[in-house]
Amino acid sequence: MAAPPAYTLIATDLDGTLLRGDDTLSDRSRVALARAVEAGARHLVVTGRPAPRVRPLLDDLGGTGLAVCGQGAQLYDAGANRLLWSVTLDRELAETALGKIEAEVGQVFAAVDQDGVDGLTLIEPGYLMPHPTLPAVRVRRREDLWCEPISKVLLRHHALSDDELARTARGVVGSLATVTMSGPGTVELQPCGITKATGLALAAEHLGLGREQALAFGDMPNDIPMFQWAAHGVAMANAHPELKAVADEVTLSNEVAGHAGQQERRVG
Question: What pTM did the predictor assign?
Answer without folding.
Answer: 0.94
